[in-house]
Amino acid sequence: MISAAATLMAISPDHLEAATRLSRQAGWPHRREDWEVALTVSKGCVAVAADGRVIGTVLMTPYGSDSGTINMVIVDEAERGQGLGRRLMQQAMTLAGDRRLQLVATEDGLPLYEKLGFRRTGEILQHQGQLAQAVAQSVVVRGARADDIPLVAALDAAAFGADRSRLLAHVASVGEFAVLERQGRVIGFAALRRFGRGLVIGPVVAADLDDAKALVAHFLARREGEFIRVDTGIEMGLSPWLSSLGLDHVGGGIVMHRPAADDTRRRSPISFALASQAFG
Ligand SMILES: CC(C)(COP(=O)(O)OP(=O)(O)OC[C@H]1O[C@@H](n2cnc3c(N)ncnc32)[C@H](O)[C@@H]1OP(=O)(O)O)[C@@H](O)C(=O)NCCC(=O)NCCS
């Protein structure tokens, strides 16, 4: 048992190689570049064993001063069940201060989070695969221009409930945005970026399901055969349509908040797909 003696220290770019190895071991698809993006917008720590091996990670991604997510909670499989996951989570919660926290839990993480005061508020369905059929592009959706981005950030804040403009700026630096325009007004948006095994579409923010499909379709057009991933809320209605396109439901996670709050109240516009399970 070495995890009891592990030292927790601030995560830095020097730890990216080891962090990527740990997420692979957990069966997650993150590439080093995905960890780089996560690190740029987050604070966090690693657990280092006496022999210098990185045996645990955790990140806290702040959205302004009152909200954030906890993500990349991983303990080396040889070191689990000895309290290291709890120590990492407590460190992340210290970094978060008074922020209201959200996370998407795996089956492994759920008992720990419940013990730390997180409560279930929703469920995420992970859809992915190779696009099986051609999808037509919608005429109301166009590629975003630089001057759309402040509006995109405002729509995202209304849908997500927190200011994620810093995260969106990083998504823009590695990917692209599309907006849905009606009567000259931008009323929805979606983002596409390279992640894991292929491309991820999200966040997707729209007024209704048809607009959300139009935004997703914009990025699916001419991408037959490409590996695409979309993480969507179970109640959002996108799931059957994604399955019909060959993007199978392969798993997901439990959305949890601390403190628990009534997150079922409908926001407007609506968040139909996550930036990622890590970022919400
Ligand atoms: C989730 C994970 C980080 C937990 O790490 P860990 O070091 O084993 O966790 P701990 O030993 O600190 O255990 C934390 C608590 O959860 C409890 N727990 C863990 N698994 C449990 C289970 N299957 N059922 C009930 N309780 C469980 C432990 O008893 C412990 O409670 P205690 O602190 O009151 O004694 C680890 O399993 C992991 O890396 N899994 C793969 C990656 C993953 O899924 N991460 C979660 C992402 S949301």
Walkthrough of the structure:
By secondary structure, this protein is an alpha+beta fold. It has 8 helices and 13 strands. The protein folds into 2 domains: 3-98, Aminopeptidase (3-Layer(aba) Sandwich); 126-273, Aminopeptidase, CATH 3.40.630. The protein is 28% helix and 36% strand. Strands 1, 2, 3, 4, 5, 6, 7, 8, 9, 10, 11, 12 and 13 form a 13-stranded mixed β-sheet that branches. The longest helix has 13 residues, at 84-96. Coenzyme A binds at residues 26, 73-75, 80-86, 105-106, 108-109, 111-112, 115.
Write the layout of secondary structure elements.
Layout: E1 7-10, H1 16-25, H2 32-40, E2 43-48, E3 54-63, E4 67-75, H3 84-96, E5 100-105, H4 110-115, E6 119-130, E7 141-143, H5 149-160, H6 165-174, E8 175-182, E9 185-195, E10 198-206, H7 209-220, E11 227-233, H8 239-244, E12 248-258, E13 270-273
Parallel strand pairs: 4-5, 10-11
Antiparallel strand pairs: 1-2, 2-3, 3-4, 5-12, 6-11, 6-12, 7-8, 8-9, 9-10, 10-13
